[in-house]
Write a structure and sequence with these properties.
8-stranded parallel β-barrel; alpha/beta; 9-stranded mixed sheet
């Protein structure tokens, strides 16, 4: 088990003031709801920066100048976040032209960006090269050949890492487990495909192979997962060095350290986890007589998740005697599809006051015309009325980035809080916005 830190609250930036009202990042929530409306995404910028520094400093202690932190920006991608990552001296990984465009608009130095995706189109490859993306994380041989061809046409020798699957099962949600042999991502070491794609990469004139990448999954609470992954990857790097004479200069071991969504889940000690990983990697590299490559770590969720909160207004409250109580809010699966996708757990709290001993287990559901539009089941709540506020915690990752316009519902705004000052960074979508692409 990853070392954990004891916390009184599920998130450090959640408190209640003297009136009992819920506060986030030092601000009471009801004035924010009045100012910006609901649903409302809130981000604690100070918390994000604290997490960036925790990762960066831990990697520095573990690897010196041979360690690098990349923000996995699919967790939450908008301009202000890329500005923060630039200011905090993190690299980023991106998975689409949209993320590349957003990072570029934020002034992020794209030579420090790593371009992922299991199916980059020719247009994607051209766009990334045109914008000076530093590294491609290559998923398959077809992509390698396309990069070589397009790079040759443009006079570019593109730096790449090869994504490999180490055959590690992290025992997390099936939807976010990516390191098993039968994953859609990467080339499997176990089947010999990793060696084959390495040979191809080394043979191509317009490809500069810099190293290898893997990622085994998300919401990982067992440090052993990272140690087993590092062992497989270092052994492969050593094998390629011994048999091909090629020494990888970079090894990306992915991200995936878990975050706390409910009080039953632990709070990982990130610094201690990285120290353990660092000690193991250095010892194992020494055993393999392997010069240590630069080690990359790519956290996403654990940088931003508990820096986020979503605020809702209660609408209909429906009691079914002998069955259950439904509390409907003005958001739902359009701003948070994760419960509908894989039953992701959340903590939902009333804003006005604690639920107390007389709380009733409720189903908190959304406004969509869809029976699966549920935010969470069995949420203990006091008697709720139309106009009351609810807060869903730990929503900084995979919420704004996965939001949709299902039922033609506009997406919520994003407000960043820094030093107890709120700033709108993405305005609320309007119904008129939904028509702007129609011809």
């Amino acid at each position: 088990m990853i070392n954990t830190i004891s916390r009184e609250y599920i998130c450090e930036n959640i408190t209640r003031d003297e009136t009992g009202e819920l506060c986030f990042a030092g601000l009471p929530l009801s004035p924010l709801a009045r100012t910006y409306g609901t649903p409302l995404y809130l981000y604690d910028e100070d918390r994000i920066r604290e997490r960036c520094r925790t990762y960066r400093e831990a990697m520095q202690k573990a690897f010196g100048d041979g360690g690098r932190v990349l923000y996995a920006s699919k967790a939450a991608s908008f301009r202000r976040l890329y500005e923060i990552m630039r200011e905090e001296d993190l690299g980023v990984d991106v998975v689409s032209c949209g993320e590349i465009c957003t990072a570029n608009a934020a002034g992020f130095p794209l030579e420090n960006a790593y371009f992922h995706s299991n199916n980059k189109t020719d247009a994607d490859i051209v766009y990334a090269m045109e914008h000076g993306v530093g590294y491609f994380v290559v998923d398959n041989e077809e992509e390698l050949y396309a990069i070589d061809r397009i790079g040759g046409e443009r006079g570019i020798r593109q730096k790449v890492l090869l994504r490999l699957t180490p055959g590690i099962d992290p025992h997390t949600y099936a939807a976010v487990a990516t390191g098993k042999v039968d994953s859609k991502f990467g080339s499997a070491i176990e089947t010999g495909q990793a060696e084959a794609i390495t040979d191809v990469a080394l043979s191509l004139a317009n490809v500069n192979l810099c190293g290898f990448h893997c990622h085994v999954g998300s919401q990982v609470f067992e440090a052993d997962v990272f140690l087993r992954t590092a062992n497989v990857m270092l052994t492969f790097v050593a094998h390629i060095y011994q048999t091909r004479g090629y020494l990888a200069t970079q090894l990306d071991i992915g991200g995936g350290i878990g975050v706390r969504y409910t009080k039953e889940q632990p709070t990982p000690d990130i610094a201690a986890c990285i120290a353990e990983i660092g000690a193991y990697i250095k010892e194992r590299a020494h055993e393999l007589s392997l010069p240590l490559p630069t080690i990359l770590l790519e956290p996403g969720r654990s940088l931003v998740a508990d820096a986020g909160l979503t605020l809702y207004t209660v609408g209909t409250v429906k009691h079914i005697p002998g069955y259950k109580t439904y509390v409907s809010v003005d958001g739902g699966m359009t701003d948070n599809p994760r419960f509908a996708l894989y039953g992701a757990p959340y903590t939902i709290l009333p804003v006005a006051a604690e639920a107390g001993d007389g709380a009733t287990p409720c189903s908190v559901v959304g406004r969509c015309c869809e029976s699966g539009d549920i935010l969470q089941e069995n949420v203990p709540l006091p008697p709720m009325r139309r106009g009351d506020l609810l807060a869903c915690l730990t929503t900084g990752a995979y919420h704004y980035s996965m939001a949709s316009n299902y039922n033609r519902i506009p997406r919520p705004p994003v407000v960043m809080i820094k030093n107890k000052t709120a700033q709108l960074v993405i305005r609320r979508e309007t119904v008129e916005d939904l028509l702007h692409l129609e011809v």
